[in-house]
Amino acid sequence: MPCSAIVVFHLFLAIIYIRYPSYFDHAEANIASVAGVVARGGVIYHAADDAARYSTLYGPLTYLVPSLSLRLFGAHLWASKLPGVLALIATIVAFVGALIRVGVSGIGISVATAILSVILLYFGHMSFWVRSDPFILLLVTTCILVASSPGRWTAFVIGLVGGVLFAFKLTAPLYVVPFFLSKLAQSRSIQVPVYAALGFWLPVAAIFALPEVALANYLYWLRAGAVHGIDFSLFFDSLQFSMIYLVPIALLSLLYWGNLTSEDRAFVVGLLASIVAVDLVTAKPGSGPHHLLPFAPMTIVFGLRVVAAGGKRLWWHHLSLAGVVACAVIAVAPRSYEQAKSILSQMLNDWRFYASIEAELSLVQRDHPLSNIQMGYGALSSYTWTFTRPSLVYWGNDYLLDAAAMMDFKESGLHTPKLTILAMTSCEKIWLIPRNERPFSMRTYYWFPNGVPLFDESLQSAFTSAFRIVQRYPHFDVWGCREH
Questions:
Q1: Cβ partners under 8 Å of residue 362, min gap 6
Q2: Residue 319: exposure state from Cβ atoms within 10 A (0-12, 13-18, ≥19)
Q3: pLDDT tens digit string along 117-132?
Q4: Cα 47 from Cα 220, distance rounded (Å)
Q5: Distance (Å, whole) CA 152 – CA 160
Q6: In the chain, is it the N or the C terminus that has fewer CB atoms within a 10 Å radius of its CB?
Q7: Per-residue pLDDT tens for 340-381?
Q8: DSSP character string of 348-406
């Protein structure tokens, strides 16, 4: 019963988050806003010299999935969150199916699923937020469910999952490397890489050929992002967290190596290599150890399958393995508890505040029906106020400046084009700036806490020269053209 309660509470947080009138993270606001642009015919990746500044390095499916939800259910904040929550629910269902397939039943399913929820909650709402992680989790868990099936089509499915993962995140195919190596060891046939390659390139070709993607622009932003460098503190954070996978896998391999089939041994090698590779990937500024989440269902299901197939072992084998698993759970459980409590308290405490901001944006839209309303930025302290900005896009306004994307551009050494400054100072636009704050004065996350100014001085001076405060609302000042 306590184990089931953990899973139910995890899903409860996700479902409540759908109706929360804002987002917890600035990347969510970016993705939800750009999804709105795409839903009405825009592109995900604008050109380097375009006036708009909103493109990031996230793969196209990260935007296309919420964009489809907006088209199906209407342009609402909750519609942008719905796919991620549904992906989490489907992940739990697929995980239970994978457990049943390896012979786990009853209380074993409850305990294993609770452990999965505890690990996922270690990173707060990242298992259901408006980013690629919920969908990557679902794809990997689905791969667990089908990868052990015999036949050549399994290699095709593994490749297909890898291709879809690639369209979510450039490095995400690393998660299917263990499945591919296991299948290759099982069949020892050239047909495996051929079928896997075919499966991989089909979705890649189909998705990246879409006009909404603008592939040439995406390749440009990837090259620009290649100079972001390495943050070794993030690497060591990820390496530390990955020990909850690496230590149990190492012990499992040591105790059961003689019982492992060649494909199981290949899976272990692939899993260890993939975990270390993802540790390196997470060292990019703005990344983090949450990229290790997809290894949780892999490690749990594989471990249970090996133990179930291992036959009778010495009592200390079981005790050692149980002790390591218990230590791993104990290591993450306190933070997971604090994160879950923080999610709930943040929603309860801030719900009314962000509902009032959303109502204020709606009022501004009604008061200025002929204006192109843009969300601007003040200081970093009020940055979260702007996370409701997708609503402005959903109501038909252009999307010109996204602070999350601008941080990437700043890290890449890119300056704001003159075309952007010309577009933002157009008198057809009005700008919302957090009340009583200097426009565009915020600093970046990348150099936090010392920080550097996010927006160029030329942009700030051009804005204050062209605009003045024309109206005040409780949370935002409306800046309009000085010529009017």
A1: 391
A2: exposed
A3: 999 999 999 999 999 9
A4: 8
A5: 13
A6: N
A7: 999 999 999 999 999 999 999 999 999 999 999 999 999 999
A8: HHHHHHHHHHHHHHHHHHHH-TTSEEEE----GGGGGGGGGTHHHHHTT----B-HHHH
